[in-house]
Structures are given as structure tokens and as C-alpha cells.
Write a structure and sequence with these properties.
Order of helices and strands of chain A: HHHHHHHHHHHHHH
Number of helices of chain A: 14
Oligomer: heterotrimer
Radius of gyration of chain C: 25 Å
Strand content of chain A: under 5%
Structural class of chain A: mainly alpha
Chains: A mainly alpha, B mainly alpha, C alpha+beta
Strand order of the largest sheet of chain C: 2-1-3-4-5-6-7
Largest interface: B-C, 35 and 31 residues
Number of domains of chain C: 1
Number of helices of chain C: 4
Shape of chain A: globular
Largest sheet of chain C: 7 strands, antiparallel
Number of strands of chain C: 9
Helix content of chain C: 25-40%
Number of strands of chain A: 0
């Protein structure tokens, strides 16, 4: 190997600090996600464990494949593919066919990350790209929900999980009839509210005793794991705060205007993937603005769009699209929220070419 | 056509006159022209084929007429003349498809009428047929039309195969195949087009002594 | 290019008009020729498509006559009046099989248009046929194919109230598996919006048409002229 050319490093203060590497950050994010995975396995059983495993392996495999195709050094060590896999799995319904999970993982890395040039080059959160793809490709499977805490969950797979690749999943209720389980498929609180006007108790939402995607059911757990990351300064706390405050404010405004038609704001916060999205998806450092004011704006946009999609859209859930929209708006937000360069006055002519 | 051409100069009729539009300057796969019908109607092989053939007919017919009238049409009203010619051929196709099958007509919808504003056709009329003899124009338009049809069929075939598990309506993968609905939706069109471009560019790059992707030079104005 | 190309020579407007005139003439001839050549085929196609749809929702019918509903009257289609068109289907013996009418409502993507059959004898809707539907392939388009959903329309009650001015019970779509009453439609699981559009379309149309049809039943039951 040739000797690397001598370089002169130019750094700005502080010059003495513990460097924080991408690997370290990612490792802590994985730690923060593990309790969510554990709860998902506890609530949904064998199928959840298999799904998390398959999606993660698929993401890591895709990362390795695309690295090799592009002739790049392996980036597996930075754990970013593992995080994408875990996050993606946590947004999928528990009985999601495993082969579709593998497709989602492959698309997430291939289409969400590799085509943009790998980590840091992507404009959208890769996990959400994978989720959006399977949402559009397999709309029935991704809206087939299963109730949590079923009796046979640790000994039996959910019927839809083990679908043969490329074939239609079996009809879940038919299969349940032959098994010693007490409940059948469950509708999510958001779907219950949208289509049947049935409200779910706030306590259930926060504890996670409801149906839903793997990692989105327990709001409290997400809050704790998110707080851990925020306390370690591994995520920009402004973003989740802005998302939640904005979602609360917008839904409170609707609830005040017509309490019969619109759900109360606590329901909005606790249901669906809002918590998971706010703490773990919207905060993806690649797709979110770096300016502090931009982070507030970005979070507020995501929260408001989520509520609007939930209340007026055709789908019960809108967090995914709201975050993708926020990712798309990030360059614009950063452009308009450039902080003032130190030493330049407010009155001075603004720099036309921000760095 | 890389060398500028005086209006009175006629290049020899070569294989390239025909092949130009199929491979080197394929409207869908290289030039990225006519994306609107490309994305909208390629959700099945049948629609893609019908749209491609309809465009081929309008392209050949209008280019022939434009070429025949090229010495009569004054430069100031040429675009208006071309549009009238293209519109009449489009109307002919519109009637013809209604006569052939109303189901097909319903599936293609407004995109038949929108052939009028397809930039491939006006582009060929302006850049080629208006300054070439009849035979050249017809052969070149035929090549471009076949290239367009080929591009649509490549998209439509993959999208129908994955999106419905059928080809021309016949099941390929059996009844329990899980269709990838996204392939029938507009994003699927972009994904499949992107995948084809990736494959074709990769193939082009592997050709020995491959030239970089040609940048088409059009002689606009006169 | 502008600096090398000389300005185009000034062309007399007479020549421009002559050119455009000739082009328009050629184009006109082309269009008229195509229209004349295809007209009979297109009309035959349209008639065949309509009849195919009508006879599909009214199995057993072999002849049809179309009427226009104006306010509370029924007029033959050739009467020239404006209004909703309904088609009465008759069997081989000239007996009225049922009425086919178009209904439409906004679906998930676009307006869903369908043709439905109303049978005066049982006062119910006996079939639907989707004419146009742009809803998501694989989900929303199941309203045309899903056997369980289509079973809703074997005898969907569309009975009149005692004043005979509207339906006694509005036709509604209920969530999958919740159908109890004869006038309820069991939605397709996962395609609630498209299923609801079907219910709304049928209700809107039936509320307006059924009272007139029942009132004018004597006009309809007459054997169509010129039919076997």
C-alpha cells in the first residue's frame, strides 16, 4: 500500500474533545431500539421475532451487495444498515409475510440509500422508503393487523408470516379457526376511529395493549428510549418535541372546533406511528435539517401534515408520508433558516450564497 | 446527425436513418421524451403496444405529409401547419381505436388525443421531416416510432408481469401470485424505467470502445 | 444560431393563408374520411357495449327499450327530452325483466360509474356492473370482481316508503362483516372507500329513480314496439 499523502488538518475549536464516530452513534441507536424490539416480540411472539430478523438480514445483505457492486469498502461496521432494518421492521404489521419483509429491506437499502451513494447521500429515510414501497405494492398485506398478546404467540407463527415467496398470503381468520387462540385479527386504534368511530382508551395507547405495527404500540416505551438518545445528545431533541407539539396543537384545534368528529389530541399523540416516527425516523441526521430553527420548522411540518392526513386522507395513518415530505422539504428549510454568520449584523446585506 | 446540414443538402439514406430512433436516440430509453404517455399507459402490455402503434402511425403519417409540403410551408407558420397535420392524424387514430375496441379506447383515455402534443412527433417534424425528402422522413419516423413502441413495450411488459402476474391478459405465474400493485401505479413506471436505464447504460458501458451516451444535436430554426 | 441565420424573408400573408388553407383542407379530408369509414363500426361498438352491460345486469333479457326520466314522467328515448336515461329489459315473451340505470359516486381516485339492475317485482337491486373505476388496482377494483361483495347485490332491498316518495331505508355500506339488514352492503375489507362509493351511488340513483319507476310501471311493462 502507498503511503497516504501528508495532510494538514484544519479544525475549529473545541480542539480537545472525545471524537464521536458514526459507529458510536449508530451503536447507541441500536441499543435504544432493542427494548422496542423486545416488547414487540413479547406482544406479538414468534412472528415478530422472525420479521425483525428477516428484515434486518435483508437490509444488511443489500448493503453488502450494493457496496460490492459499486466497488466500495464494506460499510457494515457502521451499523447503519442494521438500524434501517430494525426501524423498518418496527413499522410493519406483525403478521407481515416474511418474504415481503425481505423485499422491503432490499428496497429500503437499494432504492432509499445505495442509489444516492450510500450513507449520508440519501435524501429520504431509507426505512421509510422501504415501508412506502411495500405499502403501495402490497396494500392488503400491510393493512392486515393482528391482536397483541395472543395465547399461542410464542409457539405458533401467525398464518400470514410464512407465506411462500411471491404468493398471496392466506386468509388469516380461516387459519385462526383451527388454533387454540382466543382473539383473531385486530384493527388498529386509528382504523377503528376512522372507519368505525370507536375510540381507544389513552392508557391502552400509551402502554401498548393495542393492535398495530411491531414497534409503534407502546408510546411510553418509545418515549423512554427516545429520551435516552436525547439525553446522550444522539438525536436533535427539537425535532421530536416539534413534531409532537405541532401534532398536539393542530389536533387540539380540530377537536375544539368539533369534538364529535375529531379525536382528542392525546389520542393523536399515542396512536399509530407518531411517537416512533417523531423519535426515530424524523430525527435521522441525514434527512433532517441541521439548523436549530430549521429543526423546529421541520418537526412542526411533520406533525401538522400527519394530523391532516389522518383526519382527511384516505388512509388512517400518515406519519410515514409526513416524514418523507419533511425529508423532501429539508433542503428548502435549511436554505431559509441559515443562521446569521458571527460578526455580520442583521442590517448587513444577506449572503446570497450560503456555504 | 452531428454535422450541420444545409437545407438543400441530403444525406445518403443509410441504415442509421432507420436505426437512429430505435437504439442510439431511442425516444424513451435515451432521449427521455414523451414521458407523459410513457408513464400513464404502460400499466399493461396491451395498452403499451396500442399506444406505441398509434404514435407510430401518427409519426409516419404526419412526417410524410410535412416532408411533402416542406417547400410550400413558409417558416413563420410552420408550427401551426405541423400541429394541424399532426392533429388530423391523431383524430384518425382516435376514430380507428374507437372502431377497433371501446375497452381499449377507455383504457388509453385522453392519451390518444394527447398524441397531438407529444414532443417526439413535433420534434421529428421540425428537426427532420421539414428538411428531408419523403423517403428519408418516412423511414426515420418509422424508426423513431418503432423505438418508442419498443420502449413502451419494455415498460408495459415488466409492469404487467409484476403488477398483475399476467402478460397480454394471460396469467403467467398462476392464480396465487401476489401482484405488486405499485407496479401498476405511476411510481412503478418510474422504477421500471429506472431499472431499464440502469441495465442499458451498463450494457452500453461494457461495449468495447463504447462512446459516451450521445448528446443529440438538433438543428432548430432555419 | 441567431447571429448566423438571417431573418426569415417577409412572406406575404396571402401565401401563409394559402398554405394553412391547403393544409387544413388536406387534414379536413383526412378526418372526414376517417370519421365516415369508422362511424358505423363505432356506433355498433357503443351499442354492443351498452347492450352487453344491460344484458349482463339483467340476465334473461333479450330486448331493451330506453326511456328518459323527466321530473316524474317516463318518455321514450327518441322523444328528445333531457334527463336520466334508464333501460328496460324484456325477456323473449315481452315481459319486463327489470330496469337498468347508471349510478355514479366519487371513489378513492375518481368517479366510479356503474350500471345496476332494479327489479320492480321484488323491489330490490339485483345486479351491478362497474362501467368505470380508476381506484387502486388490487384493492379498489375488487368492487367489480370480489364474489362476496357482488353477492350483496343479489337482492339488495330498495323498497319505497309508505308515501312512495323515497326509499324506506337508505342503501348504506357497512363495515366488512357487519351486514344485518337487507338494504345494507357489506364492504370489502381494505377497500372501504370504494365500497362506500358503490353504496352512495346506488342510494343517490335509487332514491330519485325508484319512485318514478314504480309510479310509471304501466309505461314500462308495455311490450316494446318492434321487438320480437
Amino acid at each position: 500500500m502507498n503511503k497516504p499523502p501528508a495532510t494538514l488538518e484544519l479544525r475549529s475549536a473545541p480542539l480537545l474533545h472525545t471524537p464521536r464516530t458514526v459507529e458510536q452513534i449508530m451503536r447507541h441507536v441500536v441499543y435504544a431500539l432493542l427494548p422496542l424490539c423486545a416488547f414487540a416480540v413479547y406482544a406479538f411472539g414468534l412472528s415478530a421475532a422472525a420479521l425483525i430478523g428477516v428484515v434486518t438480514v435483508s437490509c444488511v445483505g443489500a448493503e453488502q451487495l450494493f457496496n460490492r457492486l459499486a466497488g466500495r469498502v464494506s460499510t457494515l461496521a457502521d451499523n447503519s444498515a442494521v438500524i434501517t432494518g430494525l426501524l423498518l421492521a418496527l413499522t410493519l404489521p406483525p403478521g407481515f409475510p416474511l418474504w415481503m419483509g425481505a423485499v422491503a429491506g432490499f428496497i429500503a437499502i437499494g432504492l432509499g440509500k445505495a442509489v444516492f451513494g450510500g450513507l449520508g447521500g440519501n435524501i429520504f429515510n431509507p426505512a421509510l422508503v422501504g415501508r412506502a414501497f411495500v405499502q403501495a405494492a402490497f396494500p392488503v398485506a400491510i393493512t392486515t393487523w393482528h391482536a397483541p398478546f395472543m395465547n399461542g404467540r410464542f409457539t405458533h407463527f401467525m398464518p400470514t408470516s410464512l407465506t411462500t415467496p411471491f404468493l398471496v398470503p392466506p386468509d388469516a381468520p380461516l387459519w385462526y379457526g383451527a388454533l387454540p387462540v382466543d382473539t383473531v385479527s385486530g384493527a388498529t386504534p386509528l382504523a377503528l376511529h376512522k372507519f368505525e368511530h370507536v375510540a381507544t382508551g389513552t392508557l391502552d395507547l400509551f402502554l401498548g395493549t393495542t393492535a398495530g405495527s411491531l414497534g409503534e404500540t407502546s408510546a411510553i416505551l418509545i418515549l423512554l428510549c427516545g429520551a435516552y438518545l436525547a439525553a446522550r445528545r444522539l438525536l436533535n431533541w427539537r425535532i421530536p418535541v416539534a413534531v409532537l407539539v405541532s401534532a398536539f396543537a393542530v389536533s387540539a384545534a380540530f377537536a375544539l372546533a368539533d369534538g364529535q368528529r375529531y379525536p382528542d389530541p392525546w389520542f393523536m399523540l399515542g396512536s399509530g406511528g407518531l411517537m416512533l416516527g417523531a423519535f426515530f425516523m424524523a430525527t435521522d441526521p441525514v434527512g433532517a435539517p441541521v439548523t436549530p430553527r430549521g429543526a423546529w420548522l421541520y418537526g412542526a411540518l411533520i406533525g401538522a401534515v400527519t394530523v391532516v392526513i389522518r383526519l382527511f386522507g384516505g388512509l388512517p395513518e400518515g406519519v410515514m408520508y409526513a416524514i418523507l415530505l419533511g425529508n423532501a422539504a429539508t433542503p428548502l428549510i435549511e436554505a431559509v433558516t441559515q443562521p446569521r454568520v458571527y460578526g455580520t449584523g442583521r442590517q448587513s446585506a444577506p449572503d446570497k450564497n450560503p456555504p | 446527425m452531428t454535422t450541420p446540414l444545409r437545407p438543400d443538402q441530403t444525406p445518403p439514406l443509410t441504415m442509421d436513418t432507420f436505426l437512429q430512433g430505435i437504439w442510439r436516440e431511442n425516444p424513451v430509453l435515451v432521449m427521455m421524451l414523451g414521458m407523459c404517455p410513457t408513464m400513464a399507459v404502460t400499466n399493461s402490455l396491451r395498452n403499451a403496444l396500442a399506444m406505441g402503434l398509434a404514435t407510430l402511425f401518427v409519426l409516419v403519417g404526419s412526417n410524410a405529409l410535412v416532408s411533402m409540403l416542406r417547400s410550400l410551408v413558409p417558416g413563420t407558420v410552420r408550427i401551426a401547419t405541423y400541429i394541424v397535420i399532426i392533429a388530423s392524424f391523431t383524430t384518425v387514430v382516435d376514430y380507428a381505436i374507437q372502431a377497433i375496441s371501446l375497452t381499449l379506447y377507455g383504457a388509453l383515455g385522453a392519451f390518444i388525443q394527447l398524441i397531438v402534443v407529444n414532443c417526439i412527433i413535433l420534434g421529428r417534424a421540425e428537426a427532420y421531416a421539414s428538411r428531408r425528402p419523403l423517403l428519408h422522413s418516412v423511414i426515420n419516423a418509422g424508426g423513431v416510432g418503432i423505438g418508442f413502441t419498443l420502449g413502451l413495450v419494455m415498460l408495459g411488459g415488466v409492469r404487467e408481469l409484476l403488477g398483475s402476474g399476467t402478460l397480454l391478459g394471460f396469467p403467467v405465474f398462476g392464480a396465487s401470485f401476489q401482484p405488486w400493485v405499485i407496479m401498476l401505479l405511476p411510481p412503478g413506471g418510474f422504477f421500471v424505467l429506472g431499472a431499464w436505464l440502469l441495465l442499458l447504460n451498463w450494457l452500453r458501458g461494457r461495449q468495447p470502445g463504447a462512446a459516451p451516451t450521445p448528446v443529440p444535436v438538433h438543428n432548430h430554426g432555419r | 444560431m441567431t447571429d448566423v441565420t438571417p431573418l426569415p424573408p417577409i412572406i406575404s400573408s396571402r401565401r401563409m393563408m394559402a398554405t394553412l388553407g391547403i393544409t387544413a383542407l388536406v387534414s379536413g379530408v383526412l378526418v372526414v374520411a376517417a370519421f365516415e369509414l369508422t362511424r358505423t363500426r363505432i356506433e355498433a361498438n357503443q351499442r354492443a357495449a351498452l347492450e352487453q352491460a344491460i344484458f349482463r345486469v339483467l340476465p334473461g333479457a333479450s330486448a331493451r327499450q330506453s326511456f328518459i326520466v323527466t321530473a316524474d314522467q317516463l318518455q321514450p328515448l327518441d322523444g328528445g327530452a333531457d334527463g336520466v336515461v334508464i333501460h328496460a329489459g324484456y325477456d323473449r315473451h315481452g315481459r319486463l325483466v327489470g330496469i337498468a340505470a347508471e349510478a355514479a359516486a366519487r371513489g378513492y381516485q375518481d368517479i366510479i360509474r356503474l350500471l345496476y339492475a332494479y327489479t320492480p317485482d321484488c323491489e330490490c337491486i339485483t345486479a351491478i356492473h362497474v362501467l368505470r373505476n380508476n381506484d387502486t388496482p388490487g384493492i379498489g377494483d375488487r368492487i367489480a370482481t370480489d364474489p362476496a361483495f357482488l353477492a350483496n347485490f343479489r337482492a339488495l332491498a330498495a323498497r319505497l316508503n309508505t308515501e312512495r316518495s323515497a326509499l324506506a331505508h337508505a342503501i348504506v355500506t357497512v363495515r366488512h362483516g357487519r351486514k344485518v339488514e337487507a338494504w345494507e352492503i357489506d364492504a370489502i375489507s381494505g377497500a372501504t372507500i370504494s365500497s362506500r362509493a358503490v353504496g352512495k351511488a346506488l342510494n343517490d340513483s335509487a332514491q330519485a329513480l325508484v319512485p318514478v319507476v314504480q309510479q310509471q310501471l304501466t309505461v314500462l311493462t308495455r311490450t316494446p314496439r318492434g321487438s320480437p
